[in-house]
Design a protein that fits this description.
Blueprint: H1 11-18, H2 23-26, E1 48-58, E2 64-71, H3 75-79, H4 85-89, H5 94-102, E3 103-106, H6 114-118, H7 122-138, E4 142-146, E5 153-157
Antiparallel strand pairs: 1-2, 2-3, 4-5
Length: about 170
């Protein structure tokens, strides 16, 4: 790069040399607009599952949150807790860390972290552990049940509805 000394006398000359070219000279041919990406193919794979907690999570403001969603776990989700110091000190903490990674929403709470899962009722944590197992190993939230009265078999969807609803 060549160094140039600027004085008041040659400032106009330098500005004229470095000024941008007029618009007609600068006009370049219009750039080709890239085609839109192809539409995503629907492979029929569900990656997020809705659920309703049996008791519900009560936040700091006293609001009850019952509906939520959980995504499918990745290999990273299952490996990450293994290096977490809390899990190394207490292996039972693994489910808290794992659930906090795959739960995407509980009510209006979208920042679900281990502290949120820690403050859940044990009934809800047990429900979420079973829900996680069903979603990630079986790929669905349905369970086969038998009526204790008529012994008829049918399926219920564990992800939603109150007791007695399906």
């Amino acid at each position: 790069m060549k160094r140039r000394t600027v004085t008041a006398g040659n400032l106009d000359e330098i500005l004229a040399m470095t000024a941008p070219a007029p618009a007609q000279e600068q006009a370049a041919p219009p750039a080709a607009v890239p085609p839109p990406p192809p539409p995503r193919e629907d492979h029929g794979l569900r990656t997020e599952f809705e659920f309703e907690l049996p008791r519900g999570y009560v936040d700091e403001a006293g609001t009850l949150h019952r509906h939520g969603s959980m995504r499918l776990a990745t290999a990273r989700d299952e490996l990450r807790p293994q290096i977490d110091l809390r899990v190394k000190e207490n292996p039972a903490y693994l489910s808290v860390v794992l659930l906090s990674q795959v739960i995407t929403r509980i009510g209006t709470i979208t920042d679900v972290h281990a502290g949120v899962v820690e403050r859940m009722y044990a009934t809800d944590v047990a429900f979420l552990q079973d829900f996680y197992r069903r979603v990630n190993s079986e790929g669905h939230t349905r369970a086969a049940v038998t009526c204790p009265h008529c012994e008829g078999g049918f399926e219920v969807d564990l992800s939603g509805g109150r007791l007695g609803e399906s």
